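Let's sit down with a protein and look at its sequence and fold side by side. Please make up or recall a protein chain and show it to me in full. Label the sequence line and the structure token line clearly, so we can match residues to local backbone shapes. Go ahead whenever you are ready, and we will take it from there.
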Amino acid sequence: MASNFCRNCGFRLTPGKSFCANCGTKIVSPVPAQAPVAAPAVPAEPVVSAQPVDETSAPAAEPVIPEAPQPMQTVVTYHPEESVTKQLPSDALRPIPAVAEAPAEPAVNENALVPAAPETQPAVFEPAAAPAPAPAPAPAAPAAPKKKKHTGLIIGLICGAVALILIVTLIVVLLSGYIGRANDARMGRTVLDRIEVMDEVASGKNYTVYDKDFEKKIEEIRWWDYDGAMKSQGVYYQDAGKIAFSIKVDEKTSDRLYYAFYYSKDEDFTADDLSKAEKSDTISPSYYKDGTAYYNIECEKSLKPGHYCVIVSKDKTFNKPYAVAYARILDEMSKAD
């Protein structure tokens, strides 16, 4: 059988070529191109007769199997003693570049590619349980309202309410005083007409207390004589430099009072006499070392013969009078003893 490799370098010979493609050695007998192998003939199917065959009359014929065609062989005569000298082109013997080997394919783990079959468990028939009723959804709790801070608004409202109360109170006080004075002027009455019975004064009593709560705090009431110019209670000589009405109270009293002195030539104090006070002021008790406390209500301004009255009240409106006292200054000077 002919060799398909070069006898000089062992390179695979190209069919139909007379020289080796690697070293140029002459091939003694060129390698003929292999003729195509004819396909084996398909045996024809036996023709079966439609007539029935009597199996007992004749034996069945054996089928003939055709022989397979033999491949063609080419005889190559090798003569090693014959040397062939041939001039080759300069580039015929250039080295063949090394062919990079294809990377080896990674090993395939057959066990990893085929998943393990799950273990089969014997089927156990269990009756289907009745589905549990779905729990009723709990009602959503209402969101707690956010508390808004209204501190500034509340403080503003309180201040506004207090201011409004003060304004209303002041208006009421002023109106009540104005209305009272207007009524007195219209009817010809004075403050003394509203709080004093002149017959009591004419009978010799020189003071009257009108407030019962204030009277409970009083321990003594009298006119004082500072310079020996008083003839009797509430009666002063012309040379008296001061008249003083004193109210002694218990030491726990601390009320602040208002007082006003008025003058009249006679004992009938008219609206004109009471329109302007000789002296007015507010006063608190004076406390002494012996534990006594006095309201010392004094007047020493332009004293002249005639009649004086002092009105003691909670405030200058005289809507709540506490006491009224009367005094007289004589036309004569005090007489030395």
User: Anything to note?
Assistant: The mean pLDDT is 73. The longest helix spans residues 151-187. The first strand starts at residue 207 and ends at 209. DSSP finds five helices and eleven strands in the chain.
